[in-house]
Amino acid sequence: MAYRPTIGLEVHAELKTNTKMFCSSRNDPDETRPNTNVCPVCLAHPGTLPVVNHEAVWHVLRIGTAVGGRLADFSEFDRKSYFYPDIPKGYQISQYEHPLVSGGELAGVALTRIHLEEDTASSIHDVEGTRVDFNRAGIPLMELVTEPVIHDSGTAGRFARELQLLLRTLEAGDANLEKGEMRLEANISVSAREGELGTKVEVKNINSFRSVERAIDHEIQRQIELIENGKSVTQETRGWDEGRQATFHQRFKEGSADYRYFPEPDLPKLRISDIETFSEKKLLASLPELPWERRARYQVSYALKESDANYLITTTDRINFFDAVARALGEDAELTALAANYIVSDLGGIFAKKGTEDIANLPPAHFAKLIRLVASGTLSSRGAKDTLAVLVENGGDPEKIAQERGLIQIQDTGTLQKVISDVIREEEKAVAEYRGGKEAAMQYLIGKAMQKSHGAGNPGMIREMLAEALT
């Protein structure tokens, strides 16, 4: 029997603001000293009153504008009651009936709403018990909810990645999943009947894009197996165990009635149109080039592969570096495409080994010069890789580095002819194979010639001279 999965996502993302959502305590997710960024408001001392963070509201309205959502004219905050050690008030200030944004679409997925609330404190569990760090309590938290229109894990993963890109592009949040700055939850059901939804199960504790895809696939299969064995799917909240690659029961799912929502009496209602900085015109004018616009421009202007374009637009530093290199190359499509290839493969490889993307020693103009040296045939691909490694580590002029290290390609036919004669003499088997019609042997011989020239031979000239010598 065929089953149709239906998936909706809930995404929480911490917003980048100077202060917390309802008080003047510093918003610093990198603070390691426990209970440092706290005050009577975020510790819920009696008699304290919250004040709405203007910057946080602005971030959410810009996100809503970017995804084509409907911005509320009237909005309000609500109390969401539940009792955990990490919620000092015994309730969370959130939004229920009147979110800041309704509707919209991202990565082909329809959105239900985007609203604003405050984050909880952090519970630290160890052998001595549980301790609570209130540095995170009250940090502005955006919650985005999709419509249940996703039917496979791949679409869910693409959506989450695109949302992270959007948050970073708008500088609304860093959205690092490994640091808990962006958290994914999936509501999953399966049904054998078209147009009918099964029993929904919420899966939490997902801290990577790959994990959300695996968790969805696992939960779909778990629910199908239950149904196939004549059992019922229970509406519940489950966690994701990365080690076991399986979901596990956490608690039975609460409904909205359990939270006893009611309007927050200590905060004023928001009339968005009364606040000049929240006007649609100003919000639109504040938007930079959005990820999908930039991706399309890179693909059209420079004929980049989608995967390369995605790599380049992942961080602001990569975007700024690539755009500066493109300008230094005069926006030449071929040269810029070559530059993109070296950034993604070679520079990206260096970043992966170093564990950091520090390019303080590599001005875009110097990288552009390296690309021109490759394009002109002055540097081979091997020589460019070696030169790039030195540039990233120590800086300097790429042409001078290449000359000092003997990496400038040999263009002199006399010098190359000696190399080729030595290769033909030493590689009798490969020569015989090539003359016998095995074209792959030519590539082997070129590689040997490149080795003998210490990577400085011009591979195009070597190929031509080998072919001529072996005919």
Mean pLDDT: 93
Taken as a percent bin, the fraction of beta residues is 15-25%
Number of strands: 17
Tally of individual domains: 3
Catalogue the unreliable spans. none
3D shape: elongated
| Alpha carbon gyration radius | 29 Å
N→C terminal distance: 64 Å
Largest sheet: 10 strands, mixed
Helix content: 40-55%
Task: Give an overview in words.
- Belongs to the GatB/GatE family. GatB subfamily.
- It is an enzyme of class 6 (ligase).
- Keywords: ATP-binding, Ligase, Nucleotide-binding, Protein biosynthesis, Transferase.
- The structure is a single chain.
- With 471 residues, the protein is an alpha+beta fold.
- The chain has 3 domains: 4-282, no CATH class; 291-404, no CATH class; 413-469, Arc Repressor Mutant, subunit A, CATH 1.10.10.
- Helices cover 41% and strands 18% of the residues.
- The chain is built from 16 helices and 17 strands.
- It has helices at residues 54-66, 153-169, 209-228, 256-259, 280-286, 291-302, 306-312, 316-328, 333-354, 364-375, 381-394, 398-404, 413-426, 428-435, 440-452, 459-469; strands at residues 4-14, 70-71, 74-75, 78-81, 91-94, 101-102, 105-106, 109-118, 122-126, 129-133, 140-146, 182-191, 201-206, 236-241, 246-252, 262-263, 270-271.
- α3 links the parallel β13 and β14.
- The longest helix is centred in the C-terminal third of the chain and has 22 residues, at 333-354.
- It is elongated.
- The N and C termini lie far apart (64 Å).
- 37% of the residues are buried.
- The model has no long low-confidence stretch (mean pLDDT 93).
